[in-house]
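Anyone have tokens for HTH-type transcriptional regulator CysL? Sequence:
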Amino acid sequence: MRYTLKQIAVFDAIAEYGSVSQAADYLSLTQSATSMSLSQLEKVLGRSLFERQGKQMRLTHWGEWLRPRAKRLLQDARQIETGFSELQGISGELTICASQTPAEHLLPELVSSLDRIYPDVRVKVSVKSSHNVIEDVLSYRSDLGIIEGRCDDHRLRQEIWCNDHLTIVASADHPYAALPSVSFELLEQARWVLREPGSGTRMVFESAIHPHLHQLDVWREYDFVPVLCSLTAHSDYLTCLPYLEVKPLIESKQLVALNVPQLKMDRSLSFVWRADIGEHPLIDCVRETGLRMVEGRSQLS
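Reply: yep, here.
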């Protein structure tokens, strides 16, 4: 091979940061050495991998083609290095980006299980909306995403982790709380506080409600679930949230789940990862550990 792992690492870092100087800082190299490595790689491959736009570097078509292959090559190299040094088959670093519900209610137990089973795997976690989780995985900022609802992007693979459902809740003092069922006409008359547009919860709710209602009186939109719960518990607002989020508040009678017989809002929580990365042992470990975890929960329930 006429190219080196160093050149591939330089290419990947520039693609990540969009800047030669930032890539140099990340790799602890001089800017001139970083530029030289990229030039040598482009010369060897006979293709320009970036378009220079001032100080910003944008991937060309060939750079886009190389990116997932470079990621896979670097991951394999790290696996070889850490595997031999630690005598451990599964080791390395994985970045996970999760939407709010799985991040709060499932991810802590998953990371704890990974720490116990694979002590040499280092997991970095971030929390964003489902839309931004998908963007992070597509742009290589995260190796694995955990989202609410569906993803139809052909560039990603999706695997259902577990199932959940959304429920409409009101305060215990709300006039609707004592009703055996709530009609769509009453829902249309209510004031609402909801998750922000782009969240998995909001997308599932709108998909379910729009065939029945075209307009809701939405007063507030927040990306922080405890704010929505507190507003609803202490006012006449309605909100719609995952059952996992509101279950403790329903059990403590701070919130009441409203019965809307015609409204079904089942949804899934899923793993997503890039389809073009090939085999990835760390992603496989996380998925398998997560599936065993929820299987164990269902057996106990």
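The first helix runs from residue 5 to 17.
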